[in-house]
Amino acid sequence: MKTQTVAYPLRLPKSLKSELAGICREEGTSMNQFIATAVAEKVTALKTAEFFADRQEMANIEEARRLLRRKGGQPPEPHDRLDDA
Fold this sequence. Notes:
The protein has three helices and no strands. With 85 residues, it is an all-alpha fold. The radius of gyration is 23 Å and the shape is elongated.
């Protein structure tokens, strides 16, 4: 599958561009790749927040509490237990 890209002229303050260029040199990546990744991370964070906000409206707190109070089945297997810290 071929990814479609579009050009977008980006204006950055000179000091920010200089910092970005230094980071990209150290990381061995292009400024374009860095910016694309940063935008993707921000979009993902916003979409995740939106997802949970939408799910919150459907939450039934009393039903969740009822499930937490119910009697359990089998105890955890030894390999599922956490070591006491």
